[in-house]
Amino acid sequence: MTSLTLAGAAAANNNGGHLSEPTDGYGQAPAVGSNDTPKHLPYMRRQSVAGEQWISRVREHSGPIYLRIVSALEAGLSSGELLAGQRLPSQRSLAKHLQIDLTTVTRAFEEGRKRGLIEARGPHGSFVAPPKASFEQRVDLSMNVPPVPDCAHFSALLRRTAAAVLARSDANNLMTYHLGGGNATDRHAASRWLKPMLGDVEDSQLILTEGAQVAISAVIVSLGSRGRKILCDQHVYPGLLQASTALQSELVPVEGDEYGMRPDSLVQRARESGSTIVYLNPTLQNPTALTMPYQRRVDIARVLRQECIVAIEDDPYWHFESTQPQAISSMAPQSVYYISTLSKMISPGLRTAFMRCPSAEQADKVMSTLRGTRQMGHPLISALASQVLLDGSAYELMERVKEEAHERVRMAGYLLPPSLLIRAGGLHAWCSIPQPWSEETLVRSAHLQGLSIAPSSAFRQSKSGQGMAMRLSLGLANSRRQLEEALSKIDKLLLDSTGSTLPRFIR
Fold first, then answer.
1. Residues 93-150: pLDDT tens digits?
2. What is the pLDDT of residue 487?
3. What distances in angstroms separate CA 260 from CA 196, 254, 430, one per listed residue?
4. How far is Cα 448 from Cα 27, in angstroms, rounded to an integer?
5. Could you give the CA distance from residue 318 to residue 398 in angstroms, rounded to a whole number?
6. DSSP string, 406-460
7. Hey, is 209 helix, strand or coil?
8. Which of 215, 234, 260, 286 is the 20 to 30 A CA-CA neighbour of 382?
9. pLDDT less than 70: residues of the chain
10. What are the residues whose beta carbons fall under 8 Å from the beta carbon of 436, sequence distance 6 or more?
11. Checking DSSP bridges between strand 451-452 and strand 139-140, what pairing results, if any?
12. What is the reported pLDDT for 22?
């Protein structure tokens, strides 16, 4: 690839309109000191030229070409292949090299300038920009966190709660060892929280833990399932993936349909694998936002009883679901460990989960496992959680969170077109990823737009197959306006019809 620069054109004028030597393929004039160099150039410091290795990265991924070029620039900077101050190829020569339209390269360079990757110096060309301090806040759409509808109100609530706990408790007692699992006050608060889902619960069957992931791991170990197979949906809560890896347990995906996990497939996979434990997330499932209807829950409960399968029913989003579905645990109480948490409804900072075990004996086994791994929970956090539940402030805050979350789900419904949005509810939206995008390319392109997203591969043990999709978490954006801007960027990025397609050989 060759091109003429201003310096090259000057040399041509000094040589009868012809160049005695070709340019270097990046629009660079011949080296200083050559016969074709105007006499004033020896006094100018010649910029170093960017190598070609970064260009090869354009061929590695799918998606709109202009964003592939921008991604290649960013990757080159990260790897050290590109250095600040290096001159980039001319737009025309790069277009010729990649066999694409000049307008596509122009758009890529413009996007690179917006992102602070490229510095344009007029007739001298485009250069790798020096690093700049950035104060722009990244919008995290990758983590399910409840929105804080009124920060001032929440701060005041936290201060009042902490003051009440310290006023009514012995400070020394809060700072010493406890048996764990919650005291009588904690269990009373837990019973009140679980009553809408399960009705009255025996204190002897209740356990408090520091979040759902701790509870899930403790159940798996207490059942002797460490190193054994666990049945689950095809896409699952990442905490289960981490727990299964740590416990050396294999996850066995069970086929589902538009109503959730299929009972016949559960029977088949259980018999094939020999597994006797299944993980269920039946309400606003993470990540697909699917809620299992009543009849499917009845059928799953029947399978649990008939096949002697024990279930972990992880139900953190139940309060977001307007239909208030009946818990599977209430249909098969002797077969199900039911887990609910404050992390998704109030705040992850409270880090408190409540678990109802099938029996007092099973609760003792889980408690023994918990004591063997972490001795006890955090007394101060447990006291704060119990206080907000018993004085009613948790339910007031929960209603505010639900109202805000509902508005954000509604925003996702009208900002994301049906061709992308599969389902939305609770704190997240489940979206398809259209061709020619790949999950990896989309994650990187979204990063360039200041967004973090969670691809479907983050929710399954096998990183291949299962189609392409992503979860967009709606709660962590600071405001509805920030969320609206983020979702609009996603929409524009995915449905950009102006991105042309690279030739087949460089896909």
1. 999 988 899 999 999 898 888 878 899 888 888 999 887 655 556 899 999 999 987 6
2. 95
3. 23, 10, 14
4. 27
5. 12
6. HHHHHHHHHHS-TTTEEEEETTEEEEE--TT--HHHHHHHHHHTTEE-EEGGGGS
7. strand
8. 286
9. 1-47, 50, 61-62, 132-137, 150-153, 178, 225, 375-376, 463-466, 496-507
10. 62, 63, 501
11. parallel
12. 35
C-alpha gyration radius of the chain: 29
Instruction: Judge whether 125 and 87 are in contact, CB under 8 Å.
Output: yes
pLDDT of residue 173: 74
Query: Using CA atoms, how far apart are residues 224 and 409, in angstroms rounded to an integer?
Result: 40
Angle between helices 184-198 and 379-390 (to 10 degrees): 50
Packing angle, helices 294-307 and 263-273, rounded to 10:
30
* pLDDT tens, position by position, 436-448: 888 988 998 899 8
Judge whether 236 and 459 are in contact, CB under 8 Å: yes
Q: What is the DSSP string of 117-182?
A: SEEE-GGG-EEEPPP----PPPEE-SS-----S-HHHHHHHHHHHHHHHHHHS-HHHHTS---SS-
CA 283-287-293 angle, to 5 degrees, is: 25
Residue 471 phi, psi (nearest 5)? -105, 130
How many other C-beta atoms can be found within 10 angstroms of the C-beta atom of residue 422? 15
Look at residues 95, 125, 96 and name the one whose alpha carbon lies nearest to residue 107. Answer: 95
Please state, in angstroms and as integers, the Cα–Cα distance from residue 305 to each residue in 109, 110, 201, 338, following that order: 62, 62, 20, 16
| Residue 37 near residue 29, CB atoms below 8 Å | yes
pTM, two decimals, is: 0.73
Nearest to 173 by CA among 454, 379, 429, 389: 379
Q: What pLDDT is stored for residue 413 in this prediction? A: 94
The amino acid at 298: V
Residues 6+ apart with CB under 8 A from 450: 136, 137, 138, 139, 489
Return the pLDDT at 136.
56
Query: How confident is the model at residue 383, as a pLDDT?
Result: 85
pLDDT at 466: 62
